[in-house]
Amino acid sequence: xxxxxxxxxxxxxxxxxxxxxxxxxxxxxxxxxxxxxxxxxxxxxxxxxxxxxxxxxxxxxxxxxxxxxxxxxxxxxxxxxxxxxxxxxxxxxxxxxxxxxxxxxxxxxxxxxxxxxxxxxxxxxxxxxxxxxxxxxxxxxxxxxxxxxxxxxxxxxxxxxxxxxxxxxxxxxxxxxxxxxxxxxxxxxxxxxxxxxxxxxxxxxxxxxxxxxxxxxxxxxxxxxxxxxxxxxxxxxxxxxxxxxxxxxxxxxxxxxxxxxxxxxxxxxxxxxxxxxxxxxxxxxxxxxxxxxxxxxxxxxxxxxxxxxxxxxxxxxxxxxxxxxxxxxxx
Length: 331
Known about the structure:
Shape: globular
CATH architecture of the largest domain: 3-Layer(aba) Sandwich
Largest sheet: 8 strands, mixed
Radius of gyration: 21 Å
Distance between the termini: 56 Å
Order of helices and strands: EEEHHEHEHEHHEEHHHHHHH
Oligomer: single chain
Helix content: 25-40%
CATH topology of the largest domain: Rossmann fold
Number of helices: 13
Structural class: alpha/beta
CATH superfamily of the largest domain: Tubulin/FtsZ, GTPase domain
């Protein structure tokens, strides 16, 4: 058996305590060009991260770099083995699974994942769903409805606390998951959260439909909970795709005579904060040439991303640049 996680995971991170008993069979796929841990075996691509990673899927540089070394990764996994992919609601965490799925001939693939949370952008939700549209090569699926966790935790919880609670729940399941896969007597199966067991799927059955059948959540209650919770203050706003109304969204806010200057100033501060804390971040210049309010949905999405990344850093390790920008730097 092999367990695969990636450096794109928010939940299955190398410091997750539940992983430590299985250190000898874990492979960390590092898609940012450098090993992220010395505790587990790492598979490193030649990609050098230089941005926020707004592009997703097979056209993304990170995916292409991993795809270029796919044969090497397949050889590392050996043959006639169970490969367990631990992923989460982060679309990029699915890249190793997608790559191996295309190349696999002999191994049995087992996917552990979760749906993106309700506050994720529409684009990320759609990509995550599309990435899991073909599970014909998968022997088992555990798919947790991420919003079920939001519905149960304290509304005053922070984003960091949501991550920790999700880690705990997944971590508690891991030994059960691995044991049942290793001792299985089924061909294909889905994980049922009522019985806490994998249940076989008849030939032609849809793994995804079965995996989510008993996890329906009242979305209106979740939306209300998120809107008025501490979580809601940390969530990114939807940012429209690059179509003709992107500019309308940017320019819909009340413009200021110094709006563009404010935008540049805040953008530079975000870039300096990311650099000081070694956070992968890219902030392309705003394409709008019209009136500007100084901030917009894109700015808020970048700020929310940085807040979430800073939450992952131990408090006394966080760096907050103190120097202010001069007028010339901001202009």
